[in-house]
Amino acid sequence: MKKTLVSLICSAACFTAAADRMDDARRLVNEGDFWGARQLLDKEASANPRSSNTAAFNYLSGVCAFEGGDYAAARKLLETAKSKGSGAANLYLGRLAFLDYDFPKAQDLYGEFRRYREKAGQVAGEGVEEAERRLMTAENSLGRVEKITVIDSIAVPTDGFYQFYKLPHSAGRILAPFEMPLEKHRDGAVMAFMNEGGDFMMWGEPDSVGNVHLVESLRLTDGNWQEPVSTPSFLNKGGYADYPFMMPDGVTLYYASDGDESMGGYDIFVVSRDPQTGEYLQPQNLGMPFNSPYDDFLLAVDEENGVGWWATDRNLLGDKLTIYVYLVNDFRQNYSADETDILEKARLTDFRSTQDPEKSEEYSELLTKVKSIDPDEVKEAPEFHFPKPGGTYFTNMNDFKRASARQAMKRYLHARQELDKEENRLAALRKRFLVNRADNVKQQIIQFEKEIEQQRDELVRLRSEVYRLEFSKK
């Protein structure tokens, strides 16, 4: 009798300890301490092997595995938890389906999670609302997947990945934190961008509460750098903003944000700033294939050679990232949303499928040229950027082999200049119409639109004439 009583007391004590460990593990998961929760769960499995068969144990273990990046283990644990009655597992199973680009399945699983919460008399929670928002962003992006040609894929260490970008001097420089001239701002930065002239710098910096936002600084005439100025908060989109790259025009900025309009962690955004006022306009998500349900960041463009670079962790390479090198399009062209393999094109399942097999030699030559770039070499400033076949550009009149093509190029540039003037006048009229909706202003706008459309058609004709004269075999 005494032995039985002792056994019961020990069993009760063990049960209490196990319950405490599970409660503590659940608390740590809710607080985001997944490593600490994992340690408690391992202790519980060692002390009480049968607990590893419960829905709660598998669910919490699955969450820890997911947040730790072990998606294969997470899927197995969460599916086991669901089979044992865990409705909470549906949220993370939905997130796994989302990472697999199985968007319909993700939506179904999020719906199951909502019904589970409602049945328990609980609100769905921010977790599923955020997951559904990202899912909607990704689904919308499938309707505008840009058609690009990726000519190389490079696996590099995550730390300092940007040092593998090969950019000419004209594109500016990507700096490691220790290279930043403002020493007291180095600690919070992961990288910085400096323009070709060496008088403009931009980077991501944490504020007083740890939220990372973009800041910029100008070098003064005395050689010192001004204190950084914060960019508008709307660039963050409610999250962090980092990894900036400013185009040589000083107007077009690429950067990464994990805010409200991101489909994954970090997404790449593009934003323009008014050249007169310096004010930033509303940023736009670049969409797929540049962005994904994973982290995508630091898009940089080499206008001299017509290539761009960006980094992503979509290929799950552990402590490495993938850098893609692609040909920059003169004009954006999207795949049809009805393409049977649109998901493969969106996720770049095989980047070689984006290439034209007949141009493999051109790609190889271009890559060899890009890899030999010396970022400190200063070249003659380009007069213009006129696309060549194969992704490179004419940048000066001497690039043309034929005199007739040079003359055609002059006509094209003059027409381009006139069109720019007319488009500026039209923009001014539209602003005026917002204030004064007079009929005569409206008629002027309509007339300008017709004339500009004709000028655009003429510009296309002149562009074709340049190519015909330069590349004709006659």
Helix content: 40-55%
Spans of at least 5 consecutive residues whose pLDDT stays below 50 are: 5-15
Q: In whole angstroms, how far apart are the ends?
A: 110 Å
Proportion in β-strands = 15-25%
The strand line-up of the biggest sheet is 2-3-4-5-6
User: Globular, elongated, flat, extended or rod-shaped: what is the shape?
Assistant: elongated
**How many strand segments?**
15
Spatial extent as radius of gyration: 28 Å
Largest β sheet strand count, sense and barrel closure: 5 strands, antiparallel
Would you mind describing this structure in some detail?
β3 and β4 form a beta hairpin. Helices cover 42% and strands 16% of the residues. The chain has 474 residues and is of the alpha+beta class. The strands form 4 sheets. It has a 5-stranded antiparallel beta sheet, with no helix packed on it. It has helices spanning 2-31, 34-47, 55-67, 71-83, 89-99, 103-119, 126-141, 342-347, 360-371, 403-435, 439-471, and strands at 149-157, 173-175, 192-194, 200-206, 212-218, 229-230, 241-246, 252-257, 267-272, 284-285, 296-302, 307-312, 320-327, 386-387, 393-394. α3 (55-67) runs antiparallel to α4 and α10 runs antiparallel to α11 (439-471). The N and C termini lie far apart (110 Å).
Structure at a glance:
This protein has 474 residues and is α+β, with helices and mostly antiparallel strands.
